[in-house]
């Protein structure tokens, strides 16, 4: 762990180059640390193996929420935006231009929320997350952030949002929570005619070499032990339909790891390595290897993804709430 700060600052530089290369406009910094506790007095955090986590036994989230993780989430945002060349796919551009009410569920540091708020100044954006890693004070006037456990009933009226966005919840929600807790609640607060959009990563990574395969298998076992399904993408369209969403639409895109994909590939692999570095203790224990052997798996990944042309797929799922007046 001793080398993490230099790794992160290297990533921040690469990430800001990638950000410039992307054609989208953007108003937030990739490397700014946004964490603050100034508005919150609760004893929120616990520390394990030098990383910071939410101190709440009812929260299953697998990853930390410290400054290094905030940097990683911001970099990941730019990777995803680069892959899709956009921040969303739902047909909501026009209502966003005119003035819509938007919810970002599990918003993290709020990178997506802040960019969208800057692009659509007539719309109002609310980001909710269990961790206060979003900006508390310095934010656009059309943006607010709230601390909220998304597996609890949400403090919003029925039929009150035009558009709901939710990204990378695979290590957040148990399978049952997707189906029976979170999506029903999001359906309740979405206006008739409104859209929901969920973005997910597919852990069925294509052309995995042996080291990646071992790490991914460990991750899958870790998730399953917590009743989470990291291969949730095939199930999401069904979850949306079961909860009453109509016109369910699925789109898929991909990103390559490694040298063949230039700067993107380097950052995508760094993102993977940072996630698995954060999960070193539980996954090495599941794989019954020591941390030196685990580190050796991570160290071999660059060579392995180059040799195998490894790539991953990401999905966007869209659903609409029926409007009797349509
Ligand atoms: C992988 S991050 C994704 C963040 C953001 N959506 C993005 O794409 O950058 C998952 C987020 O879910 C949040 N989270 C985890 N459990 C949660 C819960 N029960 N309620 C609300 N947020 C939660 C974490 O704090 C983290 O910010």
From TrEMBL:
<protein>
    <recommendedName>
        <fullName>Methyltransferase domain-containing protein</fullName>
    </recommendedName>
</protein>
<feature type="region of interest" description="Disordered">
    <location>
        <begin position="1"/>
        <end position="37"/>
    </location>
</feature>
<feature type="compositionally biased region" description="Low complexity">
    <location>
        <begin position="1"/>
        <end position="15"/>
    </location>
</feature>
<dbReference type="InterPro" id="IPR029063">
    <property type="entry name" value="SAM-dependent_MTases_sf"/>
</dbReference>
<feature type="compositionally biased region" description="Low complexity">
    <location>
        <begin position="23"/>
        <end position="37"/>
    </location>
</feature>
<dbReference type="InterPro" id="IPR041698">
    <property type="entry name" value="Methyltransf_25"/>
</dbReference>
<feature type="domain" description="Methyltransferase">
    <location>
        <begin position="102"/>
        <end position="194"/>
    </location>
</feature>
<dbReference type="GO" id="GO:0008168">
    <property type="term" value="F:methyltransferase activity"/>
</dbReference>
<dbReference type="Pfam" id="PF13649">
    <property type="entry name" value="Methyltransf_25"/>
</dbReference>
């Amino acid at each position: 762990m001793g080398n993490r700060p230099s790794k992160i600052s290297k990533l921040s530089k690469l990430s800001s180059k990638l950000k410039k290369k992307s054609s989208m406009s953007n108003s937030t910094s990739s490397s700014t640390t946004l964490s603050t506790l100034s508005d919150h007095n609760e004893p929120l955090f616990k520390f394990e193996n030098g990383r910071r986590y939410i101190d709440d036994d009812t929260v299953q989230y697998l990853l930390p929420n410290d400054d290094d993780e905030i940097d990683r989430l911001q970099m990941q945002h730019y990777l995803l935006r680069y892959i899709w060349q956009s921040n969303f796919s739902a047909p909501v551009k026009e209502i966003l231009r005119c003035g819509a009410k938007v919810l970002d569920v599990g918003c993290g540091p709020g990178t997506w929320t802040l960019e969208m708020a800057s692009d659509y100044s007539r719309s109002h954006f609310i980001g909710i997350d269990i961790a206060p890693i979003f900006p508390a004070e310095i934010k656009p006037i059309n943006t607010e952030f709230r601390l909220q456990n998304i597996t609890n009933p949400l403090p919003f009226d029925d039929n009150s949002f035009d558009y709901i966005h939710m990204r990378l919840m695979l290590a957040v929600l148990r399978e049952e929570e997707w189906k029976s807790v979170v999506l029903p609640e999001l359906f309740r607060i979405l206006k008739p005619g409104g859209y929901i959009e969920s973005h997910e990563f597919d852990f069925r990574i294509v052309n995995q070499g042996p080291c990646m395969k071992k790490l991914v298998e460990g991750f899958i076992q870790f998730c399953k032990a917590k009743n989470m399904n990291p291969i949730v993408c095939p199930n999401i369209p069904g979850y949306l339909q079961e909860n009453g969403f109509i016109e369910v639409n699925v789109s898929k895109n991909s990103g390559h790891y490694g040298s063949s994909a230039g700067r993107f590939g380097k950052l995508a692999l760094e993102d993977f390595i940072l996630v698995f570095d954060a999960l070193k203790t539980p996954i090495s224990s599941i794989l019954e290897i020591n941390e030196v052997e685990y580190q050796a798996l991570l160290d071999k990944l660059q060579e392995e993804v180059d040799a195998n042309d490894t790539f991953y797929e990401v999905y966007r799922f869209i659903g609409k709430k029926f409007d009797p007046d349509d």
